[in-house]
Amino acid sequence: MALNLLIIEPNPLIRRTLHEFYSNSLDFSIIGKLHDASSAERRTWGVVPDILIFDVSDDFKNDIEALRSAFAGFYIPILFFSNQSDEFLSNISNRLGSLDWDVINKPTIKIVQNTTLLIPTITKKLRDLNLSAKMRIKALTKKKVAKNTIHQADVHRANSRLPQHTSPSQTTSLSFEKRRRFNNKIIAVGASTGGTTALLNIFSSLPADFPGIVAVIHMPVEFTGSFAERLNSLCEISVKEAQDGDLIKPGQALLARGDKQLVVSKSSGSFSVRFSGNQLVNGHCPSVDVLFSSVAQVIGEKAIGVILTGMGKDGAAGLGEIKSAGGWTIAQNQSSSIVFGMPKAAIEAGYASSVFSLSDIPSELVKNLQGLN
């Protein structure tokens, strides 16, 4: 069956080139070719697109609202044909709830010729995205009973560097017979570019009674709340944007706000999170190093630090502090990282006790907490 394809592309030469090819393809059915996303909101759609080729305009906030309005309640994976950064596009896709996404950099010279040369790559990525989305929706359908909600979005960028998703049932097959072994454990996670996919792949693979998690992702405050809500809808653990004074408790992940430094504190035998200003550290607020350093000081040997895909070296030093305090530290490996910056810095400094692929991290966490590794 042909895939219903919607093209939203401001450049008329690119828009025409894509339309000419895919309108003659038996595998795709073009349902629209638009200059901008606002045009989608003004139209009445008899057919919903299966997939979208999209470049964001300068007025990206209106783009988001227009697409959300036009296709409310539908899950549409996105192939960005754009020269925007991965981090920016990840934030856009998250706001759209369309977190199956990929990107191809659009040509800036010899536009028609170079766009034509990219057609085989575009076609492959469209097919990969569609297949990935179907697999995610099928897997998430099984979670609806436990979660008592219906959501058809999942975070998985269709990229050969990314692992296949691990379901909670696969992780919990290890059985949690020794809960007292990890009741007082706390897991601290840090990520940047590519982190939306990484966090979902980990969080959605964890059982509902997993130890408390605190996490930082380099993301603007406009996006962290909605990202936490999206994760919460897709995971057996609960996920929320951290508020000052929130208790850290099993079965819950607290995600740092995009404009506050987050630290861990202890009072009357309980652990909680606190806001600690909005100063930039390593160029970031929130900073992974700030969170990890507080975790090392407050939690010590009961802490587990996980540093994931991201640009730069934020979190590397903090991971070293957790290791020095006796905690276990994990770095994501290069092959499964979108950007191998933060994990690489930690590994090269000797701060990572273990290095795992993204797909292996959830099960390795569970095995460690059970004393199985």
How is this fold's topology laid out?
Elements: E1 3-8, H1 12-22, E2 28-34, H2 38-42, E3 51-54, H3 60-70, E4 78-81, H4 86-96, E5 101-104, H5 111-147, H6 168-172, E6 186-191, H7 195-203, E7 213-217, H8 221-234, E8 238-241, E9 252-255, E10 262-267, E11 270-275, H9 288-298, E12 303-307, H10 316-324, E13 328-332, H11 342-348, E14 354-356, H12 361-369
Parallel strand pairs: 1-2, 1-3, 3-4, 4-5, 6-7, 6-12, 7-9, 8-9, 12-13, 13-14
Antiparallel strand pairs: 10-11
Compose a concise summary of this entry.
The chain has 373 residues and is α/β, with parallel strands linked by helices. It contains twelve helices and 14 strands.
Q: What are its keywords?
A:
single chain; 373 residues; alpha/beta; Rossmann fold; seven-stranded parallel beta sheet; five-stranded parallel beta sheet; 37% helix
Number of helices: 12
- Coarse structural class: alpha/beta
| Mean pLDDT over the full residue set | 85
Give the low-confidence spans.
144-165, 172-178
Q: In CATH, what is the class of the largest domain? A: Alpha Beta
Order of helices and strands: EHEHEHEHEHHEHEHEEEEHEHEHEH
Secondary structure tally: strands: 14
**Spatial arrangement of strands, main beta sheet:** 8-9-7-6-12-13-14
Q: What is the CATH topology of the largest domain?
A: Rossmann fold
Helix residue percentage: 25-40%
End-to-end Cα distance: 47 Å
Overall radius of gyration:
21 Å
Query: What fraction of the residues are assigned to beta strands by DSSP?
Result: 15-25%
What kind of assembly state do the chains in view correspond to? single chain
Number of domains: 2
* Major sheet description: 7 strands, parallel
The CATH homology group name of the largest domain = Methylesterase CheB, C-terminal domain
